[in-house]
Specification:
Blueprint (H helix, E strand, L loop, with lengths): L1 H26 L1 H4 L1 H19 L10 E6 L5 H11 L6 E6 L13 E3 L16 H6 L1 H6 L8 E6 L3 E2 L1 H8 L9 E3 L5 H6 L11 E4 H15 L8 H11 L5 E2 L8 E3 L2 H5 L8 E2 L14 H14 L7 E6 L4 E6 L3 E5 L5 H4 L6 E3 L24 E10 L5 E7 L24 E7 L13 E7 L3 E7 L12
């Protein structure tokens, strides 16, 4: 009898709870509003999406490259790609306009672009290849490669530092619509083409969902822009139709200049070096080397400490009143006078604008090179960079070229009061490993020994509130 009473009580309690719940839900606004109900479903689905988003850090395997190339210049440009492409690790393809003869086992995977004659091209320069190249990201997306977060576009004469490309892209949510790159150095080029555009030679990155949207809409979009000149203009135009602006990263370099890149590289922005372009149009970045060998030399330093390569540090030899500027992995400049950071961070204009004009302004300030060779800084170029006794320690050595070059000129002074007597500088540092999502800050350096022919410098993080000019 007691069991029967308990069963009836439980049944009554369940029925009561069901009735109260029904009354509550039937009078709740969401029961009567489809908009509110849809909102609850959306929140539920969003929660599921958050739980499914990848939590691992972006790495090289998440990036797929699409490199624009032509059969005509393939043999000439291929060595530039070989410098940074890592077979077995780098993903992507070189996209050519027609097949080429490759003997042996080619290091670089090649694809042939689709035919594009159905698209009209009316620009007077008649560079129809711009249509083919503009579709490389879309064609690469349609290959259906797995586990892709970013598609990166570049030219066959683009030099990438893949480790730093990963560092930059890891700052951004690859599940969002992102279009990342940089402008030209030349204001004329930007005014002619666009300030809103990532220049394709310097490289740009498009996140996976944006690449999907581009692949779905680009062919229709291209019919609306037959009058544009280049491929990068067409990509930007189609992304503008999707409402996506350019996110600028200063480590992508179009290099729309002629002459010597020295001034630009010796005062690099406080950002990872991601790319260099137009390498056939500038002098080799190290003296007495071919262009390819000079870039290979820079890459050797980048493999030791990629984050620090080209990062500038400034300090002073207080005894001699000399100024020291370190562009790590590239050069050390030593001046016989005190130069303030505001001056040192401004690139020397060792180059001309893309149209060979000395008057065309750039997107950054420049300063002139002194006509008096002895008034210029003495420049020592990197000889090597190696890991020290401990894994985090790095030792890099810099030497002055034996014969006068374009930078050092013909200064004949060799007295103790002038840095022209220096022959070797050793720079000690630790691997940088910064968090590039934090506010940027230049590293500091200290001259720890200084003799007539040699100098030793330590590069380190600046202390809280430390000023490099405090003791001069």
């Amino acid at each position: 009898m007691l069991l029967k009473m308990s069963g009836r009580s439980g049944l009554f309690l369940c029925c009561s709870l069901f009735y109260v719940s029904f009354l509550f839900l039937s009078t709740h606004p969401c029961w009567q509003s489809s908009d509110c109900f849809a909102f609850l479903v959306k929140v539920h689905n969003a929660g599921q999406k958050i739980n499914s988003v990848e939590t691992s850090a972006t790495n090289l395997q998440h990036i797929v490259f699409g490199i624009a190339a032509s059969a005509q210049k393939w043999q000439q440009r291929k060595p530039y790609i070989d410098l940074w492409w890592q077979p077995g690790r780098t993903r992507g393809f070189v996209w050519l306009d027609r097949p080429v003869n490759e003997t042996g086992h080619p290091r670089l995977p090649i694809k042939i672009s689709e035919e594009t004659s159905r698209f009209n091209y009316t620009h007077p320069q008649k560079m129809r290849s711009a249509i083919r190249i503009s579709r490389i990201v879309s064609e690469t997306f349609r290959l259906g490669l797995p586990n892709v977060r970013w598609f990166v576009m570049g030219d066959d004469d683009t030099f990438f530092v893949p480790q730093n490309l990963v560092r930059v892209l890891a700052k951004y949510d690859h599940n969002q619509y992102y279009y990342i790159g940089s402008n030209s150095e030349s204001t004329d080029q930007n005014a002619m083409h666009s300030y809103s555009m990532a220049y394709g030679g310097g490289g740009f990155a498009i996140s996976y969902p944006l690449a999907r949207a581009l692949a779905q809409t680009q062919d229709q979009c291209l019919h609306r822009y037959p009058y544009l000149y280049g491929s990068d203009q067409r990509v930007q135009a189609c992304l503008a139709e999707l409402g996506v602006p350019l996110t600028k990263e200063p480590g992508f370099h179009q290099i729309d200049i002629h002459g010597n890149m020295f001034g630009l590289l010796a005062a690099h922005p406080i950002a990872p070096l991601v790319s260099l372009h137009h390498l056939d149009n500038v002098a080799p970045i190290f003296p007495r080397m071919t262009r390819v060998d000079a870039l290979r030399h820079l890459m050797a330093a980048a493999r030791v400490d990629p984050d620090r390569v080209l990062q500038q540090s400034m300090c002073y030899d207080k005894r001699r009143k000399w100024t020291v500027s370190v562009s790590w992995g590239y050069c050390v400049q030593v001046s016989e006078r005190i130069e303030l950071p505001r001056v040192l961070e401004t690139p020397l204009q060792t180059f001309l604008a893309w149209g060979y004009s000395a008057k065309t302004p750039f997107l950054f300030n420049t300063r002139p090179v002194s006509r008096d060779a002895c008034q210029r800084a003495t420049v020592l170029f990197m000889e090597n960079a190696v890991t020290g006794i401990f894994p985090e320690d790095v030792v890099s050595k810099y030497r002055k070229p034996q014969a006068p070059d374009l930078i050092n000129g013909n200064c004949s002074r060799s007295d103790d009061a002038h840095p022209n007597s220096l022959e070797k500088i050793t720079v000690l540092s630790q691997k940088m490993r910064p968090d590039w999502t934090l506010a940027p800050r230049r590293h500091c350096c200290e001259v720890i020994s200084s003799a007539k022919r040699e100098m030793k410098i330590v590069v380190r993080s600046c202390r809280d509130g430390e000023s490099v000019c405090h003791h001069i």
